[in-house]
Design goal:
With 71 residues, the chain is mainly alpha-helical. The protein has one domain (3-70). It has helices at 3-8, 10-28, 50-56, 60-70. The radius of gyration is 20 Å and the shape is elongated. The protein starts with a helix and ends with a helix. It comes from Methylomonas albis.
């Protein structure tokens, strides 16, 4: 998925098409699939830097404590 597709709202249609394609392939050849297919549900919150986003939600003192422990 590209950022442009996400911002213009095309991501939901593309995900639905991919889901249908995989379900059809699984129906046609069930022995090919040992487990479930990929999760094609839309992710509502996307972070470019997930590690950085996690630290922004923590109190400053907790981040400082983690830095001291790592050092």
């Amino acid at each position: 998925m590209t950022p442009a597709q996400r911002h213009t709202g095309l991501d939901e249609a593309l995900l639905n098409q991919r889901k249908a394609l995989y379900e059809d392939a699984r129906r046609q050849n069930p022995r090919r699939w040992s487990q479930n297919t990929r999760n094609w549900n839309r992710v509502h919150t996307v972070h470019l830097n997930p590690d950085h986003a996690e630290t922004q939600n923590k109190p400053t003192q907790e981040i400082a404590n983690q830095a001291q422990i790592a050092a």
